Amino acid sequence: MKRNHTIMQFFEWHLPADGKHWDRLAKLAPQLKESGIDSVWIPPVTKAQTPEDTGYAVYDLYDLGEFDQKGQTRTKYGTKEQLINAIKTCRENRIEVYIDVVMNHKAGADETEKFKVVEVNPDNRTEVISEPFEIEGWTRFTFPGRKGKYSPFTWNFEHFNGTDFDQSKKRQGIFRILGDNKDWNQNVVHEFGNYDYLMFANIDYNHPVVREEMIKWGEWLLDTTGCGGLRLDAIKHINHNFIREFAAAMKGKRGETFYMVGEFWNPDLNNCRQFLDNVDYQIDLFDVSLHYKLQAASAAGKNFDLRTIFEDTLVASHPLNAVTFVDNHDSQPSESLESWVQDWFKPSAYSLILLRKDGYPVVFYGDYFGIGGENPLPGKKQALDPLLYARANKAYGEQQDYFDHPSTIGWVRLGDPELPGSGCAVLIANGAEGSKRMSVGKNRAGEVWTDLTGNRKEQIEIGEDGFAEFKVNGGSVSVWALADGE
């Protein structure tokens, strides 16, 4: 039988910049596997503009912590050697590694150049607000520390279509670069008129040489690291045709089972569907709309109608292409897309992604191990481990929903005969204590079930008709199942 798969996002924004994160991953790999994690999404592995940078201000895609560039040989997370060892250790523990790749922009250029631009309105990038003029921009990338190893390609302003700083005037703005066939790409989302430009020096995917180089780099990354998949950053800002071309090339290199998921931060389902159509469903998308529903439910408490929790979500409309998550590095407190799911609802939110048949769920490092920085938050490993255990061992078989009350919902998984003891009954309440009569099958008659979360202490015996009255505390979740060994 096919066992459930679970991803861990193995980083949060405030990890120490100590160069030891890849070692932490290698050390924790056996424990993660035992907990029910069989793939990890790791942060960008490429050299950024400073050794403290999280990796999204990417400088040199061919430097995985190997060359003395930008103040250090290692990245925030470690050296190339430590990275390769961590991936190897994960694979020895039957954990796939998905690498976060940043292909939208480049930062920390080696030299400036002078070129012609127009300034555009930041709130409507299709509106030009200046005559053409010359700026001195940070667009020349020569990678002197690497000296052409792995790729002789160097970057100049012709390979970008926008930047945000004029060195000669020490002035910020959004400057569209002028030249033959130079414009914003049209195959992007149309927030702010056109959202091709996000930050730094924006890569121009209208340029054939750029497309060729980025695909070569992707193939090199796969060969060098042996990773099992990629997480594609900020894809709503990248030419969607290039994403399709890139995904096809990576699958061509490693086979159809090579996994890719894209960060398309847009809760509009129609936009998500159009994007999936455009890339021929070669990649999955994070279910941003479900994340916002979970956040809304946590903020509204008992006033949220739990029966509607999956309405207008990607996992409901495209279950085979939805990667479900509760929170991540961008939604955590004080970050760019802060939309944190409140603590009281977090175990319930995780049960909604871990214990149902649809979606490929992600457990966030910050939720599991805690968040660092100036305002640290403790991890919820103790609350999440029983849910991971239930996903790995109990949440199988047909799913029957009991979404019949606004503040108490439940569902059952009837189990798989190939996995003795599998099957569970899940109950969530966002108001007062609740109960629900649910059927787990006549074949379970007489079995005694317990709450794996430990939130309810009593035991429940399954009736001759396969039904039982399952209970849940107020503002809580209970996962009822046959205890192992019974």
From TrEMBL:
> What CDD domains does the annotation carry?
AmyAc_bac_fung_AmyA
The cofactor named in the record is: Ca(2+)
| Span of domain Glycosyl hydrolase family 13 catalytic | 5-391
Q: Which UniProt keywords apply?
A: Carbohydrate metabolism, Glycosidase, Hydrolase, Metal-binding
User: Which Gene3D superfamilies does its entry note?
Assistant: 2.40.30.140, Glycosidases, Golgi alpha-mannosidase II
Which SMART domains does the record match to this protein?
Answer: Aamy (SM00642)
Listed InterPro entries: A-amylase_thermo, Alpha-amylase_C_pro, GH, GH13_cat_dom, Glyco_hydro_b
The UniProt similarity line reads:
Belongs to the glycosyl hydrolase 13 family.
This chain belongs to the protein called Alpha-amylase
Organism, by scientific name, is Paenibacillus physcomitrellae
For this protein's source organism, the top of the classification is: Bacteria, Bacillati, Bacillota, Bacilli, Bacillales
